[in-house]
Amino acid sequence: MPYTEDTLAQQTTAEYLEQELGWESVYAYNNETFGPDGMLGRASDREVVLTRPLREKLVELNPELPDEAYDDAMRQITTSVASQTLLATNREKYDLIKDGVQVRFRNADGERVRQRLRVFDFEEPENNHFLCVRELWVRGDLYRRRADIVGFVNGLPLLFVECKNIHRDLKAAFEQNYSDYRDTVPHLFHHNTIVMFGNGEKAKIGSLTSKWAHFHEWKRLAEDEPGVVDMETLLKGVCNKRNFMDLLENFILFDESSGETRKIIARNHQFLGVNRAIEGKNRQGRLGVFWHTQGAGKSYSMVMFTRKVRRKLGGNFTFVILTDREDLDTQLYKTFAGCEVVDNDRDPCRAISGQHLSELLAEHKSYIFSLIQKFNQAVDPDEGYTRRDDVIVITDEAHRTQYGTLALNMRNALPNASYIGFTGTPLFTDDQVTRRVFGDYVSTYDFQRAVEDNATVPLYYDARGDKLGIAVDDLNERIAEKLEELETDDIDVEQRLERELKRDYHIITAGKRLDQVARDFVRHYSTAWESGKAMLVCIDKITCVRMHRLIEFYWRERIQALEQQLASITDEQEEILARRQIDWMRETRVAVVVSEEQGEVDKFRKWDLDITSHRRLIKEGIELPAAMRADPRFRNMQRMALDEAFKEDAHPFRIAIVCAMWLTGFDVPSLSTLYLDKPLKAHTLMQAIARANRVHEGKNNGLIVDYCGILKNLRKALAIPATAARRMKPTRPGRKRNCWRICPRPLPWCEASWRSGAPRSMASGRRPALSATPPLSPRKRRRTKTMKPASALK
Q1: Rounded to the nearest 5°, which phi and psi values hold at 611?
Q2: How does DSSP assign 184-221, residue by residue?
Q3: 654-687 in b/e burial notation, b at 16+ Cβ within 10 A?
Q4: In sequence order, what are the residues at sequence separation of 6 or more whose Cβ sits closer than 8 angstroms to the Cβ of residue 659?
Q5: What number of other Cβ atoms are within 10 A of residue 317's Cβ?
Q6: What's the pTM?
Q7: Rounded Cα distance, 184 and 178, in Å
Q8: What stretch of H or E contains 727?
Q9: Winning range, highest mean pLDDT, from 446-460, 553-567, 774-788
Q10: Are strands 459-462 and 112-117 parallel, antiparallel or unpaired?
Q11: Distance (Å) of CA 408 to CA 321, 343, 381, 484
């Protein structure tokens, strides 16, 4: 076969696996002979499992069993049901090879027995057989394809590598070659663990269900390394025998929480972080703080951490997953349930009261989900709910829950428990209580690294409140501090704010000001109508409903104005685009999402507002459009839960108005713009802006639109000592002082941000045009009064 740059990348990869990582390597192509004594022992090119090494390892790992036991195991591993989907088969095979194959056979006494046979030696990776095969021919029902590299472990094809030459975009390997293999020789992926694309310089990995945007690099072998995009680093980190077996055993999840099954393989930072957390298991009850920035898969890291602890450390651990908000508790439970770790219906694990929590702890449950508010009973520290030392308390957003009576009750109830804090925001220098409970960082993955690794998208900041003259900069600190106190204590926010802040509260909720915000919101979001979904954050529940009424009014007004403009449009293409925009606006649904409280009907009635229509929508769900019912996932569905509808790209529920719900632990990848009209600070502010940083196909940044003037607080939150530097740079020096990029380093001047405040179009996939105007010279920049230097923002 003639050498090309593609085959050179392939050869280099195979040689590295063999010479540096200890894999065996063979070149099949047209050299392979078939039969029991052939090169690979395959009977024909239709076979994808190497039965010769597989059987040898089954015998070696499970010695002295009758042949029928090995025959049964071989049959279960190699055969599949034709009617099953590729993903269903892959999931079934994964469970078999990870947990072992249960077989039936007659023992020496003639008794029919069951036994689980090991397929791999996870404790001693070197005891497994690692084989790299280049140019492997595989025949499907109609087509014959040649895979660049297939990695076999104990005869099972767990690694698929598609190689391209160094000048080719890796995306071509995904869109052309890999997609074709899945269509033509799907059985090659029945046992697959890792899909890899590489060109000798760069490489990415993902799972069977990963979209291209979710394929990721592997930049570090240790967490404290700076990180480098390098195929050698990825091969060392992933294909090192110990790491490969660790990934296979402990870092793969099948998640159904979104309504469709997705196969999740840990990212680099999750793999390193979870392993560091487990290494610190013996820290005298303080397991540390696991800080991975919002959007970096913290919930999945929790699942991986708990599963690996139970599998590798033995014992009868109980994990108490603790939060301080109902919606966050629900989101976490859904993630664990979606990964089939828990099922509250079959085995109750969600505490509904303090007494129920005490009962669950006494039952030695594996997992318990609770709000810290359930620790509402004084507990004698000499007795406690349980004195077991194999209880691990996992506290999400740890900094919010370690103060006051509830935290004291929790520690008295679980005096011998170990504590680990998971958080999406860093500890502040004065946060000594959190450190005293959990210890220092056990793993960190900050905002800068997440953006550099494409785990999250960068965020832009647009101070529209300053432009409109409605920002309340001087009031922000006072209101944000009081809000944090009241919302943590779950107190009637509106009445207390009005009573304790009086004039400040009336300024930010004044009718004239809200009217300006609503007008601008409608114009801004309807102009950026292809950019994704939007969330508006208001100061309290009353204001949310007031804003809903105003937005609905100005939304209809905007549609009428656009319809009137149609007559004056002379360009055919422009008219088509305008009609599409109008249709989009007519389809769009707006909903208020706020928590329920007693007496709310009367409370809203006093403001001449009706909460019942919003509450009905929250409780009963939103109507499913006819177009979506054609999707098999939604067939026979009439309504959809609000949270699920907002997560679905195709659903016209595009604007959510919230005040506290959905600001933490709620991931909507298509959410591109967050409108803030609520004073926030510190952790709460960081959590809120991170709603817009999720990776999504066609989205290259998120946008934070600030109506109340939180820039000062944002500077403070981003300038945390002892963490990687954060900088906010003007996106257009000399032209706009109000639009900034929250990023690890400045990018070229972004025309889109100062012109329309809109991120890249997700529908068209077009990049915003860059300004032709060159950057100002240093001398001119110093003279430009509207330009604020980066040093002033630190």
Answers
A1: -85, -20
A2: H-GGGGTT--EEEEE-SS-EEEE-TT--GGG-B----S
A3: bbbbbbbbbbbbbbbbbbbbbbbbbbbbbbbbbb
A4: 493, 537, 538, 539, 540, 541, 543, 544, 594, 678
A5: 17
A6: 0.79
A7: 10
A8: strand 727-730
A9: 553-567
A10: unpaired
A11: 17, 29, 10, 20
Q: Residue 421 pairs with which residues in a beta bridge?
A: 289, 395
| Per-residue pLDDT reduced to its tens digit, 252-308 | 999 998 878 999 999 999 999 999 999 866 567 888 888 888 788 889 999 999 999
DSSP state of 176: I
Buried b (16+ CB within 10 A) or exposed e, 390-403: bbbbbbbbbbbbbe
Q: State how far the Cα of 624 lies from the Cα of 8, in Å rounded to an integer.
A: 52
Instruction: Please tell me the distance from the alpha carbon of residue 246 to that of residue 236, in angstroms, as a whole number.
Output: 13
Residue whose entry in the numeric block shows the structure tokens 């014992």 = 315
Q: Is the pLDDT of residue 762 over 70?
A: no
**Is residue 507 a contact partner of residue 539, using CB atoms and an 8 Å limit?**
no
What does the DSSP 8-state code read for residue 173?
Answer: I
Q: Which residue has the tokens 């329920």?
A: 596
Q: How far is CA 420 from the centre of its chain?
A: 20
Residue 559 amino acid letter: I
Instruction: Specify the DSSP element, H or E, that contains 584.
Output: helix 572-587
Question: Is 545:593 a contact under the CB 8 Å cutoff?
Answer: no
User: What secondary structure does DSSP assign to 5-70, as a single string?
Assistant: HHHHHHHHHHHHHHHTT--EEEE-TTT---STTSSS--SSTT--S-HHHHHHHHHHHS-S--HHHH
Tokens representing residue 123 in the block: 């404790």
675 in Cβ contact with 708 (< 8 Å): no
Please state, in angstroms and as integers, the Cα–Cα distance from residue 679 to each residue in 305, 475, 476, 540, 695, following that order.
35, 8, 5, 11, 26
Q: How far apart are CA 6 and CA 163, in angstroms?
A: 6
Nearest to 392 by CA among 374, 373, 367: 367
The backbone region for 648, taken as left when phi is positive above 0, alpha when psi lies in -120 to 50, beta otherwise, is: beta
